[in-house]
Write a structure and sequence with these properties.
The complex is a heterodimer of chains A (115) and B (112). Chain A has 115 residues and is mainly beta. Chain A contains no helices and 11 strands. By secondary structure, chain B is an all-beta fold. Classes of the chains: A mainly beta (115), B mainly beta (112).
Amino acid sequence: EAGVAQSPRYKIIEKRQSVAFWCNPISGHATLYWYQQILGQGPKLLIQFQNNGVVDDSQLPKDRFSAERLKGVDSTLKIQPAKLEDSAVYLCASSFAGERTYEQYFGPGTRLTVT
Amino acid sequence: SQQGEEDPQALSIQEGENATMNCSYKTSINNLQWYRQNSGRGLVHLILIRSNEREKHSGRLRVTLDTSKKSSSLLITASRAADTASYFCATALIQGAQKLVFGQGTRLTINP
């Protein structure tokens, strides 16, 4: 079974530039998540989709971050403009949706460095 | 602030010894999950324990949950070099909401 795919794996940009990350979840997983993980910390949820609808985006800095999941499968996360503090690993995860809480499956992440 | 807090922040033991990590949380949960993260395999789910369960086993892993103390522990028995990784607890607050809140993690190093 194919896992969660993410690209690119690494990205270096200058502050004030824009960047986009792509995620393809496991087939059949209705729920997709984007996390930000700063070095030495645990992952922090940025946004959660169920199919193509947003379930939770309470911690997404909406003045600079945006995400979409147009057809309920792939998703993109964009940062515009980037700040130095956005340097982190951006993780995409997916899970089944339903009455109970399921385990999440994570992609390899995109390591973003903002200079 | 994070819902879950792991303790200790870092742990270093000899291969073959047992490793115990603890997680405390603040609000009532539906379930608690443990994940492992290393450079080779990324973040991987290890075990899920529901709020009405007290103990769960999976291979060399043993997880306990004490909802009265709002705490959980992860025991890895007979540790191996491959167990070197960061371990995170994650709490699910509401059934079916699928949202997890991760702690800061425990960095475990297994010395040969």
